[in-house]
Amino acid sequence: MRIVRIVVLTVAMAAWACTPVPPFKAYAYPSWGFAVSFRGAPTVTDTPAAPDGSTAHTLLVESSLAGRDDLVNVIDGSSSAKSEDQALADAPATLAGSVGGTLGPITYAATGETIGREFVLNRQGRPPARVRIFVANKHLYELIAQSSLGTDDPETANFLTSFRLLGS
Question: Which residues make Cβ contacts (< 8 Å) with residue 118, sequence separation at least 6?
């Protein structure tokens, strides 16, 4: 009986291991000026600006699959008085403060010809997340990739590098 259990468990584990991983699929959001790829179908939350102007119009696109949370948060900055350089400089600390996190070293990142920033965001009780931020066409783009396998998970890099700005 013990041998039968071992054989059944071995077959079940082999079948699970052979389950194909869904391929990355590109999703485009032309009205927000970007495209990005996810392994699982993303959920989209479009939040209008507050009538009194206290919050900006935002778009949140996120996917969670196999211990990985990938998201793009876009903030419409068309009513902001900040320059794109100032918005890019302020964004890491603003993001960390809004989620009660701390920042790792900030480096440069690029998508096409647009220069942005990349850093690790640490939050208590959660795996660290890799974050890339870009500012273009009066929009602030925050890409956040959190994996139970850590910030060096190849899936994180695949998600982050799949992001691209669309022509104006």
Answer: 106, 107, 108, 109, 130, 131, 132, 133, 160
CA distances, 114 to each of 82, 151, 162, 167 (Å): 18, 23, 14, 12
Q: What pLDDT score was predicted for residue 19?
A: 54
141, 146, 151, 156 alpha-carbon torsion, rounded to 10°? -70
The H or E element that residue 50 is part of is: none
- State how far the Cα of 157 lies from the Cα of 152, in Å rounded to an integer: 8
The first and second tokens of residue 47, run together, are: 């939040």
The residue type found at 75 is I
Q: What is the pTM of this model?
A: 0.85
